[in-house]
Specification:
Strand content: 25-35%
Number of helices: 12
Helix content: 25-40%
Strand order of the largest sheet: 3-4-5-6-7-8-10-11
Bound molecules: ligand G3I
Low-confidence stretches: 1-24, 339-367
Distance between the termini: 43 Å
Shape: globular
Structural class: alpha/beta
Number of strands: 20
Largest sheet: 8 strands, parallel, barrel
Radius of gyration: 21 Å
Amino acid sequence: MNHKRVLRLAVTVAATGALAAGMTMTLTSTASAGTTLKASAAEKGRYFGAAVAGQKLSDNTYVTILNREFNSVVPENDMKWDATEPQQGRFSYTGGDRLVSHAQANGMSVRGHALLWHAQQPGWAQSMSGTALRNAAINHVTQVATHFRGKIYAWDVVNEAFADGGSGGRRDSNLQRTGNDWIEAAFRAARAADPGAKLCYNDYNTDGINAKSTGIYNMVRDFRSRGVPIDCVGFQSHLGTSLASDYQANLQRFADLGVDVQITELDVMSGGNQANIFAAVTRACMNVSRCTGITTWGVRDCDSWRGSDNALLFECSGNKKAAYTSVLNALNAGPGITPSPTTPGPTTPGPTTPPPTTPPPTTPPPGPDGCTASVSLNSWTGGFVASVKVTAGSAGTNGWNVSVTLPGGASVTNTWSATASGATGTVRFTNVNYNGRLGAGQVTEFGFQGTGSAAGVTPTCTAS
Ligand code: G3I
C-alpha cells in the first residue's frame, strides 16, 4: 500500500521471560485498510476468530460470514469433556473433527476449548473424586490433545479454575479437591501429548487488575519460574456496559511474564456503548505486542449464548453492526507485530519438564555429523504446521540449528520449542535453552506454522 506510513517502535519488553529468552518484541505502527476482520487482523500479525457451534455449519448465512471474516475458530462446545468422552475411556471426536476440517479447508487456525473445566463434565466424571478422578482427568487431557495433535494453535488446557470475589484463590470443584497441583499436572500432560500447541489458562471476570486476575497472575508467574509449561492466558471478556480502565494494563502485566495473551470469548452487552467497548478491547489487544488474537463468542447476535443481549458483531440477517465497523477500524489503526520469533514453553527447565529431551549427565563433544532432522507436514489450503524431529548423532549435541528453504510465497508465522531467524526463503531454527543438549541418538522436536505451502521442504541439521 503506497499510502502506508510505517513507524517502527522498538519496544524492549521488560519481561522476565522475554528477556530470559533473549527476545525483543517490536510493534510496528502501520495504518492499513483491510476490509474484513481477518484481513485487518492478519495485516497486524494477529488472528480474528469466532466460537462455532457445530450445527451452525449448515446455515448458509452463518458460514458465509464465518469464512469471509474469520481466520480462527474455537468449538463452542464440541471439544469439551462431555462431548469428547461421554463414557469413560470412549472418545468421540465427530464434532471436533468436523470443525478442524472446516478450519483446514478455509485457512483458519483452531483454538481448542477446553481440556479440563469444572462445568460440562460428563456424568461419570462428575461423580468421581480423588485419585480416580485425577487419573481420569489426566488421561482425558492426554487422549484428546493426542487426537488433535498438530492441528491446534492453542489449547485452553484449564478453564475457569479461579473463584470470583475477593479471595484471589481457586474455585472449589471436584478437580480442585484432587489436589492444588491438578492444573500443572494438566499442563504437563498437554505438553507431552502435543508439544506444538500453545497451552493456555482461560478465565472470565479478569477484565482488569482485580483479586481474581491477580490470583491467576501469581499462578502464571509461579508456573513460569518453575518451568511448568504454560504459554498463554485467555481473557474471556464477556462484557457489560463499561470496560475497566486498566484492561490493557492487565493484559500487559501478563505479557510481561513471558506468555502470550489472547481475548478468547469476547461479547458485549448491546446499547449505546457496545461499539466503543468492542473498539477499546481491540485497541488494548493491538497495543500489547504479545496479544496474538481476538475471538468473539459466536458470529451473529442470534448465535450467542447471551440471547437477547445482542452481544456480537453481526445481526442475525448477516448485516454488519456499528460494533463491527468500530472493531475493523481499530484493527486497521492499531500497531502490528513484526515477524518475531515466539518461544512458547518454559524459560527455565523445571524438574518435570516434559519429554522428549532430558539433558545427558555429561556434556558430550560435538561430532562432525552431529544431528539429522526430518519434517512431517500437516497442510491445508493456504497454510501448514511442520513438526521437525531432531536426532543427535553418536557424539550428542550441545546445541543445534536446523535450516529449511521454503518455496516462494511461504512464510513462517509462529515457532515453538525453537527460535526462528527469518520468515521466508531459508529460515534457520535454533534450539531453545531446554532442548539443545541431546545425548547420542536422542530425539527432540520443534515446530513451526506458516502460510502458503511447505511441500517438499528438506531440513538440514547442524550440531554445536
Ligand atoms: O446439545 C444439547 C441438546 O441436545 C439439548 O436438547 C439441550 C437442552 O438443554 O442442551 C444442549 O446442550 C446445551 C449446549 O450448550 C449446546 O447448545 C447445554 O444444555 C448448554 O449448557 C450449553 O451451554 C454452553 C455453555 O458454555 C455451558 O456451560 C454454551 O453453548 C456455551 O456458549 C458456553 O460457553 C462458555 C465457555 O465454554 C466458557 N466460558 C463461558 C462461556 C459462556 O457460558
